[in-house]
Amino acid sequence: MTMRRAFVECLAAGAIAVFAAGAASADTIVVTPANMEAQGWKLAIQQGVKGGWDTPAEPAQMPVAEFVTGPGLPPAGDGSFKMQVFYSDNNPLSKIYLGTNNFSGVELKRITRFEYWTYLHYRDYDRGRPPMIEIITDSGSPSAQQRRFWFYPGGYTVKPAGYSGSATWPLNLRQWQKWDLMDPNGWWEMIGTSSSNYYGNWEWLRKRYDSTGETMKLATPYVGDYRDPMNPTTLQIANQTGTSIAIKIGSGQVIDTRYGPWWYDQSAVWAYVDRLIIGIDGVDYEYDFESTPLPVVTINNRAARDPIMAQARNNFRFTVFGKVNFNEFFTGDQFTVDDGSGRPILVKATGHSVNPFDYVKATGALNPGTNPPTLESRWDLIETLAGIGDY
């Protein structure tokens, strides 16, 4: 029997374990296209403009915002949220906002964890960066005037005058990266101010309008654009979703006194975001962005090399099993497993806890085109097997 036939018969026999969204832990909130509104999330897309300087202005290509599977194995579940804007160099600029008011009114001092993951697939310009986090706050008791802050993954775009430190980190293409928004070395900027006191870490932000850091709160803006004026009655500012926390792509406007040609920062950027975690008083709320969970199929190591896998890899997650080799591939982030066939699979799982010669099974996204084939996995998708004995 050929491996192709064996694989097809495996599917026909129903040897498929479906990874259901309901298997998520109690503190994980799975957000999908079907339940996004019920979970308190809003999506807004603004089609921008290009040209108009020496050629007639015309609409930019419509941004793409959608829940997808992948890329690779995201930090939570099978999927993520894709955000792609195309070339736009005139006002209004193309923008995508995915935001929530689930935490509006919460004091910043109560936020105990704040992090998310991004995947930067492509950018036209070196200044281009993956999805950013925008929060809208009040100005501390008793002022309701709203303020806008952005977290910059990778650090500052334009080094502030007089700043002697270094606060930049590499933005890795086609690789998931975690960003801790409360990192003491993190980079936040207050947007839309002429004050020289416009940047700092989370602690700076928390005390920017309240020296004790006790009263500043997340605040709900109105629906509009960065260039729209503050409401003189409510003292609200605007963003596309009208939410106090938003994942966003798209610069505020074309030209800015601080950044110069601001449109470079997020023109023609293709990226993904997943696993946004917000901790309030020590209780974590993890948002996992998902499309449709993929079925899981257990295969032997030989099957990973079958030509059918070039197509099947996009439609399934795979589980492999075997003995962990102690060889040049073994590190704290990867290892190879051999099921006795002498054809190992390279398992990549940052921070795994397996030991050489353990028997394990690992689930993830298969790449059959490498040598050996690679399974992109996570530490929580690896299980140590007991009682198997020698081959």
Descriptive tags:
single chain, 391 residues, mainly beta, 7-stranded mixed sheet, 7-stranded antiparallel sheet, 3 helices, globular, disordered N terminus
Structure write-up:
By secondary structure, this protein is mostly beta strands. It is built from three helices and 27 strands. Strands 2, 6, 7, 9, 12, 20 and 21 form a seven-stranded mixed β-sheet that branches. The chain has a seven-stranded antiparallel β-sheet with strand order 3-8-17-10-11-13-14. Strand 4 and strand 5 form a beta hairpin. Mean pLDDT is 90; it is low at 1-26.
Topology diagram in text:
Blueprint lengths: L2 H10 L4 E2 L9 E4 L9 E6 L2 E2 L7 E2 L4 E6 L9 E7 L9 E6 L10 E13 L8 E6 L9 E5 L24 E5 L7 E4 L7 E2 L1 H5 L15 E2 L14 E2 L5 E5 L5 E2 L3 E2 L7 E12 L2 E7 L5 E4 L10 H4 L4 E8 L9 E5 L6 E4 L10 E9 L6 E12 L6
Parallel strand pairs: 2-21, 15-16, 22-23, 25-27
Antiparallel strand pairs: 1-22, 3-8, 4-5, 6-7, 7-20, 8-17, 9-12, 9-20, 10-11, 10-17, 11-13, 13-14, 18-19, 20-21, 23-24, 23-26, 24-25, 26-27
Summarize the structure in short:
This protein is mostly beta strands and 391 residues long. It has helices spanning 3-12, 202-206, 309-312; strands at residues 17-18, 28-31, 41-46, 49-50, 58-59, 64-69, 79-85, 95-100, 111-123, 132-137, 147-151, 176-180, 188-191, 199-200, 222-223, 238-239, 245-249, 255-256, 260-261, 269-280, 283-289, 295-298, 317-324, 334-338, 345-348, 359-367, 374-385.
